Amino acid sequence: MNRKKIAVISGKGGVGKTSLVASLASLGHKDNDVNLIVLDCDVDAPNLALILPPKSEEDVITQDMYTTKKATFLEEKCTQCKQCYDKHFCEFNALNWDENNNIPIIDYLACEGCGACKVLCPENAFEINPVKSGEIISYETSDELPLVYGITKLGSTTSGLLVSEVKEHANHLKKYEDSNLILIDGPPGIGCPVIATVSGLDYVVAITEPTPSGIHDLKRALEMVTQFNIPFGIVINKADLKSASQKQLKSYIKKSSHEILGRINFDLSIPEAMSYAEPVVDYAPESDASQAINSIYTKLKHILSKL
Ligand code: SF4
Ligand code: SF4
Questions:
Q1: pTM for the model
Q2: What percent of the chain has a predicted confidence (pLDDT) above 90?
Q3: Ligand 2 atom nearest residue 93's Cα
Q4: Whose CA is closest to atom 8 on ligand 2?
Q5: Which of 34, 38, 45, 160 is most solvent-facing, going by the fewest CB within 10 Å?
Q6: Which CATH class is domain 4-66+135-306?
């Protein structure tokens, strides 16, 4: 198989995305046809590492990332003219006035690094500088599966850029050249981090559940994937849930003719496996959920071989 890059996404959080990725990763890593690298691009809340921890803490490599820019105030240049506050230089309300010291103060969480204050201050008392926006962490699990993930620093406004950096980082791993499958745990939603995740992929797995928000957010996520012209398939989690939305989901699938990769019925093995921080296919390989995920894996592998 030529190298394929795929992501599991969900319009809505909490529908079982990371559980599915962990199990697909476990199956892929045991498959002799597959040389796998796993990425967690859910940089605002990465938690795949909890299920696939490092072999040893000493082997974990952490790299600081500086993809965010923020304003820096240079007090020595300031003449206290107060224009920056009175003339409202900052559209993001990140410039306040320190009455005690008679100088502007920057709210770093609100600052978007737009540069307006730098341009408008008559004394050039603001600079725009890169600041730490997050970290990229990489390691191998106890089974020597390479895993890379990013984690955004509080207040960083560049989650999408960090996602791109995680993907780029994977291209430089020792095992990248021999890899033939890059499996990504994508962020929920349809914003910048998801767009950065799906860009350049070969296939997307969209996971949902038969609930009003599950269906609503699935549609939005698939609209976004369609814009990128990336083939995709759907996994329905908690497929047997007694829900008024079952009819709506069935009708949507029928009308759209979207490909269904599989259905995973509600199975207590999944939350149990999560509580032990294990992929369900390892924790309870005979469970109905594991059987369903095995079928999804086989179908996915077949689809990827045809791409
Ligand atoms: S506009 Fe510039 S010089 Fe005037 S108070 Fe603000 S930082 Fe100081
Ligand atoms: S860089 Fe932009 S957002 Fe930040 S303080 Fe200056 S004007 Fe406000």
A1: 0.88
A2: 83
A3: 8
A4: 90
A5: 45
A6: alpha beta
